[in-house]
Design brief:
The chain is α+β, with helices and mostly antiparallel strands. It has 2 helices and 3 strands; from the N terminus they run ααβββ. The longest helix has 15 residues, at 23-37. The relative contact order is 0.14. The model has no long low-confidence stretch (mean pLDDT 79).
């Protein structure tokens, strides 16, 4: 089984990969990371409090919860599957 990278090594690796992205890809990555860094919160109508993005948990056919990152990239609302929520 491979050893897990330290946090600083993992971040450095991600930054090196990000350096190879185009300006458009880098802006989309930044939008996604801003959304990921926000706490999930909704108003009384179920709309996200943070307009940049949020993590949504969904049940699918009685299974899950599955996590999805929802964020705005310019005028486009994007969704990224993050995986099944780990139980603690």
């Amino acid at each position: 089984m491979p050893r897990r990278q330290s946090q600083s090594t993992a971040v450095e690796s991600l930054l090196k990969q990000a350096a190879a992205l185009s300006e458009r890809e880098l802006k989309a990555l930044i939008s996604g990371l801003q959304g990921l860094s926000q706490k999930k919160g909704v108003d009384e109508h179920g709309k996200p409090l943070n307009q940049k993005g949020y993590v949504e948990e969904k049940m699918v056919n009685g299974c899950g919860p599955y996590q999805y990152l929802r964020y705005w990239d310019g005028k486009t609302h994007k969704s990224v599957y993050l995986g099944k929520k780990e139980e603690k």
